[in-house]
Amino acid sequence: RIRKDPPEEDIASGYLVVEHLGLEEITTWASEKDLSVQEAIAIASAYLAERSSN
User: Which of 41, 37, 15 is nearest to 27 (CA)?
Assistant: First the structure.
């Protein structure tokens, strides 16, 4: 379920993923995986958050 008032750090992490990987790269990956760009950003954000917490 998507929260209507996500914490600022959650919003920033999505922005930082796009800033780091680039929108074109994310768009290409999303298309290859049959995902929306938003879904691809969310997956990348969650993956990076998990990696950085371990």
Answer: 37
